[in-house]
Design brief:
Length: 132
């Protein structure tokens, strides 16, 4: 059974005015990474890519919740810059239903999805309880 991954130290490894890339580094090996950009004129944060380390993927992964934690980081950063937690991303086809169930994401079209303020708050409260 996978261990729960509930420790946050998303250290920013590449930040510019437009893009942010973050990774988890509290363990000897990177557990996941996310690349995102804030679309301020449309009030949302766009996730370009989110990836858990290969050993953390699926129900048999070493750490459970790395992907959801990365999306929680995106929601928190979205909130911090004034986008009210809104996050948009394109899901891999086989993960659309999973994102609906685990992140509370909703469809824009077949693969493009978003997390609204309510879903963002739920993720933020789960992964950043000290800030809720």
């Amino acid at each position: 059974m996978p261990q729960s991954y509930n420790e946050m130290d998303g250290n920013s490894i590449g930040v510019s005015r437009i893009n942010t890339i973050m990774r988890f580094t509290s363990f000897p090996k990177v557990q996941g990474m996310i690349a995102l950009k804030h679309i301020r004129d449309q009030f949302y944060t766009h996730v370009d890519i989110v990836e858990a380390a290969p050993e953390n993927i699926g129900k048999t992964g070493k750490y459970k919740g790395v992907g959801a934690h990365l999306f929680a980081i995106a929601c928190k950063l979205s909130w911090d810059v004034g986008n009210e937690g809104y996050v948009q991303f394109t899901a891999k086809t086989n993960l659309v239903e999973h994102y609906r169930n685990t992140l509370g994401a909703r469809n824009i079209d077949t693969q493009r999805m978003f997390i609204d303020s309510y879903g963002a708050l739920k993720l933020i409260k789960t992964y950043f309880p000290e800030e809720a």
